[in-house]
Prior knowledge:
The complex is a heterodimer. Chain A is mainly alpha-helical. Chain A has one domain. The two termini of chain A are 32 Å apart. Chain B is mainly beta. In chain B, a hairpin with a 5-residue loop joins β24 and β25. In chain B, 47% of the residues are buried.
Amino acid sequence: MIGLHFWRVMWGITHRELLRFLKQKERFVSALVRPLIWLFVFAAGFRAALGLAIIPPYETYILYEVYIAPGLIGMIQLFNGMQSSLSMVYDREMGSMRILMVCPLPRWFLLVCKLMAGTVVSILQVYVFLVIAWFYDIQAPEIGYLLIFPALLLSGLMLGALGLLLSSFIKQLENFAGVMNFVIFPMFFMSTALYPLWKIKESSLLLYNLALYNPFSQAVELIRFAWYGQFNPHAFIYTLVAFIIFMFTAILGYNPSKGMMMRKGGR
Amino acid sequence: MKQWFLHLGLLLLSMSVVNAETVFVTLEKDNALAIVDPIKGELLKTVTIGQRPRGIILSADNKHLFVATSDDDTIKIIDSETLKEVGELPSGEDPETFALSPTGDRLYVSNEDDNLVTVIDVVAKKVIKLIKVGVEPEGIAVSPDNNWAVSASETTNMIHWINTKTLEIVENTLVDPRPRAAHFTADSQQLWVTSEIAGTLMILDVATKKIIKNISLAIQGVSRDKILPVGVVIDKQGRYGYVAMGSANRVAVINAKTFEVEKFLLVGQRVWNLAFSPDQKRLYTTNGMSNDMSIIDLASHKVTKSIGVGRFPWGIVAKP
């Protein structure tokens, strides 16, 4: 019976998030337009920029747009994770979170549900992106389209947990611009999404180290390898550990007796 | 039961024979021959072979490799199993490219510095004739019906048509600047010739010896000076032709029926020469500047792998 309760809440939150996403057509379009502009415009200008080295999981020379495609998948999930956190702040301001929080289930479970819902939405976006990329001649082995799913699930959860953690710090919706500038942009640009590590190392050792330890880099590499039918254990463990840390801290952050909400006046 | 095992054993044996394939790549700077397993995508070994090896051809019975070691001024005969040298052919000075007659008994060699084509009897290991051609002969091919040998002169910008019976030049065709390589279609009706300076592929009609189509090989986003077509091959079914685009680092896929360029496939740096797998399911390229070879799957027209082989890979041939 308890299990049914849990399931009902999980389904309810996921369903609400999916409906919200699908009904907001502008959000659906803009979630896709962003990576597609990067793909069709930005990557087109750098077609021959990568130079020589063949790096795993690739077994031959690739165009730049092939290289950045996994980074753009990561971008979709990164923005989605942050967007979910934005919706948490919105829910808190509008009062709908209180309705959710009075649900007689553990708070951590409600947060996990919220996180899962956001991740499902991001995976949906990614698969639409993959279909478009396929027609743009960015194709991976067939098996990769199946194997990318668990990678997307983990990376989506990790980035979503980061979003949740951030949302526990933000008191008002207006503060989200700061998240954009201080979290999303640095995370995206200081990662392997746009350039491989060896290329970053050529220009700056500091940037190389930042990119190396950036959890977003590891999520992108996990996705990149999985898409090409390979498993990257280092990226997997790094992403998993990052997820656990972010999630645990977010749960703490949302605990009214201990967390940030308390310090911010308990709203 | 015993018979069943015997059948299974024979089946497995035949499968392993079918799958076995070896690719040989000459390494101009390493003075060596790289031996590659293209199915596993691995470099098996490298053997020293002679000074500046370039052109490479497999004998008609697949037992020997002919390798032009340019700085030794000879064509070496190598046993394709043991990789031991078993003889030499008198190629003349600085041999680079050569072609084997379909019967496997004659070799036509371009002697770039002497403006000659040397015709060699492979069995007797003797020169049959020296044919004077234009300045800097490079590309050379023999028609599958064994009626024509053609030599492309890089500086004279000409295709010289040599009658294989009389070993005389019977006609010359003026082509675009710096013709580099030539290849006949399997039906011997057409000759495809690449022009390095014009960046074109010319289709010549063998009957009239005239250019019937001139295809510009421009690639969007790649500067014109990098478009340097070199090696050209055409599949046996006459469906597609493939051109190595030199410093453009791509292989052009050309529909042999419509003469449309369908695709450019990204490979290593300065792609030079091309060879089909014996079953023509794959195409192999030598990438001179990136020191590797690329494998192209011809069913999907995708580059599946690039394998490091050694310094300055030049010629390539696949043995079943």
